[in-house]
Amino acid sequence: MVASVPDVLRLAVLPVLGWAAWRDVKIRRVPSRAWYPLVGLGALLLVWDAVGHRSLSAPGDALFFVRVGISLLLVAPIAYLFWRLGGFGGADAKALIAISVLLPTFPSYYFAGFSLPVVVTTLGVFSMTVLTNTVVVAAGYPLAILARNLADGEVTVPVALFGRRTDISALPTAHGRLFETTQGYTRNGLDIDALRMYLRWRGTSLAAVRSNPGWARDPASIGETHDPTDGAVGAVGDGGGEATPPDSDAAYDADPADPWGADAFLDSIDGTAYGTSPETLREGLAVVTERDAVWVSPGIPFIVPMFVGTLIAFVYGDVVFGVLGALGVV
User: Fold this and answer.
1) E-strand stretches of the chain
2) Which of 65, 140, 211, 318 is deepest in the core (most CB within 10 A)?
3) On the CB side of 85, how many CA atoms lie within 13 Å of its CA?
4) pLDDT (tens digit per residue) in 95-124
5) What is the pLDDT of residues 272-319, one digit of tens each?
6) What is the separation of C-alpha 253 from the centre of its chain, rounded to a whole number of angstroms?
7) Which GO cellular component terms, listed alphabetically, does the Swiss-Prot or TrEMBL entry include (predicted)?
8) Would you list the domain boundaries of the chain?
9) Class in CATH terms, 5-140+301-326
10) For the sheet containing 164-167, what is the strand order?
């Protein structure tokens, strides 16, 4: 393989993204420090490349700076905007911002008889290609969920396209949102991380709450509270603690002012527990204590399609541009 030193160094993004994708699948958490070395390396390589184009006399010198400007002033802000609007998680936005700095223009790798990437866009902004490839890969996620549900005999529409029927016993290590309420289906159900936060705050477990929901619904049953953490899997085991219910439902308020202590929980924590309202928390707790299996919308661990989209970008190039070219559109 023949390539410039900057382009060889830019391959460092692949193992970092691969590791981040694995973390995103396992615990939906990627530490911010993972992206700092890529941003630092990207800034260094930008200076390196800029020195080579500083004369603006060779063909493509001016275009290099235009492409860098598009990557830094368009792709990076798009990542930030999507995060602010809730379309991206924080790690997703940071990953794309790091890519916009590290990979503003198309790298080139020459082998005997061929070169990669195969399809290079007219625009020539590699970070934009990574973004569009990621969107294309992510679009297949609902289809994969549907195929798995059909294979399991779950044909309820539209939930089979966006959710997985999950046994209650699996919720302590699950990710996503409840896709149902006591009244039907919803795309805005209780976030499973928020459920773990609530259980850790109470110092109890889902199994304990399910064993006596009447007791758990009465806020008088809440004793010493604890650090709710951020709801990550494995932070405090299954969310279990010392608080256990009595053997009978005899002593509890059937119509408390603050059912489940939802208001007390949300008032006691920093932030909003992933946008959870007291009503959403109460409805979610009612669902998980009444049913043995629930539909969960797992969401997209977006760094996974980003890793795949980046790998495709290095090898094939721009998927959308390639398809449009094959159709004679570009």
Assistant:
1) 109-111, 114-116, 164-167, 177-178, 235-238, 293-297
2) 318
3) 7
4) 999 999 999 999 999 999 999 999 999 999
5) 898 899 999 999 999 999 999 999 988 778 899 999 999 999 999 999
6) 39
7) plasma membrane
8) 5-140+301-326, 164-297
9) mainly alpha
10) 164-167, 293-297, 177-178
SS3 214: helix
- CA distances, 106 to each of 83, 122, 128, 149 (Å): 25, 11, 10, 39
DSSP state of 237: E
* Long-range contacts of 324-330, Cβ-Cβ distance < 8 Å, separation of 24 or more: 325/119, 330/122
Give the whole-angstrom CA distance, residue 132 versus residue 253.
54
Nearest-5° angle of CA 80, CA 86, CA 87?
A: 75
- 164-167 and 293-297 beta bridge pairing: antiparallel
167: exposed, middle or buried (Cβ count in 10 Å: 0-12, 13-18, 19+)? exposed
Measured at the CA of 274, the angle between CA 271 and CA 279, to 5 degrees, comes to: 95
Residue 238 pLDDT level (bands cut at 50, 70, 90): very low
114 — phi, psi (to 5°)?
-160, 165
Cα–Cα distance, 13 to 107 (Å, whole number): 13
CA distance 144 to 147: 5
Q: How many helices (H) and strands (E) does the chain have?
A: 16, 6
Rounded to whole angstroms, how far apart are CA atoms 127 and 107? 11
Helix (H, G, I), strand (E, B) or coil at 70: helix
CA angle 122/307/38 to nearest 5° reads 85
